[in-house]
Amino acid sequence: MTSTSPTRVTGTGYRHELYPYSGSDQFVAGAVSFIQEALDGDEAVVVAVPQEKASLLRAEIRENDSVRYVDTSRVARHPGRLISAWQEWIQDHVSEGRPVRGIGESPWDSVRSPAEAEELRYHEWLLNRAFTQGPAWWLLCPYDVARDEAALTEMSRCHPQIRRDGRTVLSEDYDARAPYAFVPLTDPCDPYDEFHYTSGDLAALREKIAACAEQHGLAGRRLRELHLAATEVATNSIRHGGGGGVLRTWGEERRLVCEFRDAGYLEDPLAGRSMPTPTQVGGRGLWLVHQLCDLVEIRSTPDAGTTIRLHTELPE
């Protein structure tokens, strides 16, 4: 297998590179070349790709002290959990003082809704902000253009660099202005239930959610988790969003959706996406919400306030 020597992009710190490919052979060729470059430079590599892609790479390069294949099953379909997962995956190598590379491909083939696809793309952009102040490392993100070539431009807006034919170049389409932060949410499915809440209404709010959940067959542990997540979001509305907000609930594409609107402004787009430290004061609520729900959508501007949607999968 031959490869072209890469063109190095100047700069230090975190590098985030898109690798467009077509088909499994091109995926393997590009990923193996990237791993081999790391090994030649005495760098560690963390591979976080869907299981079928990991099997292809394992046939070429087995796991060893320098190459680690991680299980992505618990976080792959949860965009809000991926940044804290990457922080965990690379920590061991960073603590050893070795340069680190990563290969990360989202499970685009198993995306369940347009909302999830949008959040995965937004996650790709947020990676740039999440690691800009952290340890230096290099992340390659393969993307199969045969799946949806039209989406390649959108992915290019999220990655400062692109790798083509073994060469790394700057992405002309990269948008440092958070291109997905203000993508409007879709309209709620009609009919939906609406409830205005304020201080003292948390019990009534949970009852409203339980009533909607019962209509859609959601009960037991998943309902308890949704109640906990909803309580966290509503409490934030009461404390920081003008004293209260509006809850809307509806069923959509085999999911129960709970939407919270208030007048507050969530300035940090990374809120809830990094695991809180043991000594951290505050900031745990949204992280918990991401752990409890199947998908979390957040839109927030100073003028329009904050909207948070919690998605919970319904039983078959």
Features:
alpha/beta; single chain; Rossmann fold; 316 residues; five-stranded antiparallel β-sheet; disordered N terminus; 2 domains; Heat Shock Protein 90; 8 helices; seven-stranded mixed β-sheet
CATH architecture of the largest domain: 3-Layer(aba) Sandwich
Please name the CATH topology of the largest domain.
Rossmann fold
Structural class: alpha/beta
Overall average residue pLDDT: 89
Major sheet: 7 strands, mixed
Quick one: overall form? Answer: elongated
- Quick one: CATH superfamily of the largest domain? P-loop containing nucleotide triphosphate hydrolases
- What is the alpha-carbon Rg in Å? 21 Å
Describe this structure in words.
- This protein is α/β, with parallel strands linked by helices.
- The chain has two domains: 15-170, Rossmann fold; 193-313, Heat Shock Protein 90, CATH 3.30.565.
- It has eight helices and twelve strands.
- It has helices spanning 23-40, 51-58, 82-95, 114-130, 152-156, 202-215, 220-240, 284-292, and strands at 15-21, 44-48, 67-69, 100-104, 137-144, 161-164, 167-170, 193-198, 244-252, 255-262, 295-301, 305-313.
- Helix 6 (202-215) packs antiparallel against helix 7 (220-240).
- The protein is elongated.
- The protein starts with 14 loop residues before the first strand and ends with a strand.
- Residues 1-11 have low confidence and may be disordered.
